[in-house]
UniProtKB/TrEMBL annotation:
It comes from Xylanibacter muris. Keywords: ATP-binding, Nucleotide-binding, Transport. This is ABC transporter ATP-binding protein. InterPro entries: AAA+_ATPase, ABC_transporter-like_ATP-bd, ABC_transporter-like_CS, ABC_transpr_LolD-like, MacB-like_ATP-bd, P-loop_NTPase. It comes from the Bacteria. Residues 2-232 form the ABC transporter domain. Gene3D superfamilies: P-loop containing nucleotide triphosphate hydrolases (3.40.50.300). The keyword Transport applies. GO terms for molecular function: ATP binding. Pfam families: ABC_tran. Transmembrane segments: none annotated.
Length: 232
């Protein structure tokens, strides 16, 4: 699903990524861990085409994204990549349903089809009864579920999550973890998750460790594959 070869990135004289090679398979859930300043978020932003590397190549779902111009890259990003951030970033003036529909509108989906897809996702998230509520009327966990639904509305090839549980309490963190695994199991959804949460990292299929702009040279760490969240 994602092939990264020789990615480097500098900001001024600070070299943040120093040659990253990484392969992530379809349906794989990978966590990226490491100390602050290791380059995790920069790598995720490049993976999500929110920034371009200085050198190297990244192929997502068979497309060499570095070869795309700005407009084609934006269209590719909207259709093929979903984002979940630590803070939900929902638009406060829109309802839960409308927030979910926005990426579908941008992709040119009709109002009818966007509403149908958003309704299906709200139902899957157990939030059908909150469809007409605005973000300030939702709990923290509900906001994050709406954000996940928004990331899924265009059926993207990959979900990129940056500290998705960082602002949640224990109960909502565990519910978010369960949701991620349900999505992976039901839709073979590929996830790449930057996290400091050791519990979440331990549950993913593989943990990639970063330090000082490089991947850890130790062999790739495969985590315990759990079929049910209740087993942890």
């Amino acid at each position: 699903m994602i092939d990264i070869k020789g990615i480097t990135k500098s900001f001024g004289t600070l070299q943040v990524l120093k040659g990253i090679d990484l392969h992530i398979g379809k349906g794989e859930m990978v966590s990226i861990v490491g100390p602050s300043g290791a380059g995790k978020t920069t790598l995720l932003q490049i993976m999500g085409t929110l920034d371009r590397p200085d050198s190297g190549r990244i192929v997502i779902d068979g497309v060499d994204v570095g070869a795309l111009g700005a407009s084609r890259m934006a269209a590719f990003r909207n259709r093929h990549i979903g984002f979940v951030f630590q803070f939900h970033q929902l638009l406060p003036e829109f309802t839960a349903m409308e927030n979910i529909m926005i990426p579908a509108y941008i992709a040119g989906t009709s109002n009818r089809d966007a509403a149908r897809r958003a309704g299906e996702l709200l139902d899957f998230m157990g939030l059908s009864h909150r469809a007409a509520h605005k973000p300030n009327e939702l709990s923290g966990g509900e906001k994050q579920r709406v954000a996940v639904a928004r990331a899924l509305v265009n059926s993207p090839a990959v979900i990129l999550a940056d500290e998705p549980s960082g602002s949640l309490d224990t109960k909502n963190r565990e519910e978010l973890y369960q949701l991620f695994f349900e999505l992976r199991d039901k839709f073979a959804q590929t996830f790449v998750i930057v996290t400091h949460d050791e519990q979440l990292a331990a549950l993913t299929d593989r943990t990639v460790k970063m330090r000082d702009g490089l991947l850890d040279n130790a062999p790739a760490e495969g985590n315990i594959n759990v079929n049910s969240f209740e087993t942890i």
